[in-house]
Design a protein that fits this description.
Layout lengths: L2 E4 L9 H9 L4 E7 L7 H13 L2 E8 L13 H21 L3 E4 L15 H17 L3 E5 L11 H6 L8 E6 H5 L5 H8 L3 E6 L1 E3 L2 E3 L8 H10 L5 E4 L9 H15 L6
Parallel strand pairs: 1-2, 1-10, 2-3, 3-4, 4-5, 5-6, 6-7, 7-10
Antiparallel strand pairs: 8-9
Length: 270
């Protein structure tokens, strides 16, 4: 297991390429790229990102869209909206494929203005996700659905309910976002227990009260999470994915990154 940074941690301070270069300041390793505008959704930009990351010793392993731009419309009942959303998705995936990303981090639906989504309609969710997962697979990418308390994956039983409806052999995975699960009634470990068979990566962000903060500066015990993951022999990566307002200086982010590496980058017991 390795720990890296998501370029989303520098949004909206830096443009994408600047954020990749900032990730490179912390040394080589895995990286997640957040493409925060449709103007970046081109194969050419993906190639540029891969080249610059490679120069810095970074491995782009996952890619995140600006999810509110098109992902909710993938669930629309209006053909015109779905056509727009799928066209945008395909352009995003083309960029991600050129980066060499293995996973597409997906939010999906969104509950706006503080409202919660209704209970999941799993047959409808599977109906939407199956063609998305296939589009990903065509490009050598795996759909990776993230826990988001206002998004598609916001209940603990989501993985098992979805798995019963997804075609065998069609790859899909999960991303556990610690901050988002802390905002739910169930908490991180209830989500983790259900997610483990499909879990590919983890997003690290802490909270203090209801405010997001750097990992290690809030209330969550990441040391315990590290022990649990080690017992389960989890070998995916974790990424610090915070908001830019969570830190003021590079030293603050670097201290948090070192702390997370000390916790999670340990060999499994044999």
């Amino acid at each position: 297991m390795r720990v890296g940074l998501s370029t989303a941690s520098f949004y909206p301070r830096l443009e994408v390429m600047e954020a990749i270069e900032s990730c490179g300041l912390f040394g080589p390793g895995p990286c997640e790229v957040h493409l925060n505008a449709p103007s970046y959704y081109t194969a050419e930009f993906g190639r540029r990102c891969k080249a610059r990351a490679g120069d810095l010793g970074l491995e782009i392993q996952s890619c995140h869209a600006m999810s509110g731009i098109f992902e909710p419309e993938l669930f629309s009942r209006l053909g015109s909206q779905v056509a727009y959303a799928r066209d945008t998705l395909c352009r995003f995936l083309d960029a991600a494929a050129e980066m060499g990303a293995e996973r597409y981090i997906f939010h999906g639906q969104s509950a706006y203005y503080g409202r919660r989504l209704p209970p999941p309609d799993y047959p409808r969710i599977a109906e939407v996700l199956i063609p998305i997962a296939a589009l990903c697979a065509d490009r050598g990418i795996t759909l990776c659905i993230e826990t988001v308390n206002y998004g598609t994956y916001h209940t603990c039983d989501f993985p098992t309910k979805l798995a019963a409806l997804m075609p065998p052999g069609l790859p899909w995975q999960l991303c556990l976002d610690i901050k988002q699960t802390l905002y739910t009634d169930d908490g991180p470990y209830a989500f983790l227990d259900e997610a483990l068979p499909w879990l590919a990566q983890i997003h690290l962000c802490d909270v203090r009260g209801d405010r997001p903060v750097l990992p290690g500066r809030g209330e969550f015990l990441f040391e315990l999470l590290g022990q649990v993951l080690q017992r389960h022999h989890f070998d995916g990566n974790a990424y610090i994915e915070v908001y830019a307002e969570c830190f003021e200086t590079r030293d603050q982010l670097e201290k948090s990154l070192r702390q997370m590496k000390d916790i999670f980058e340990v060999p499994h017991a044999t």
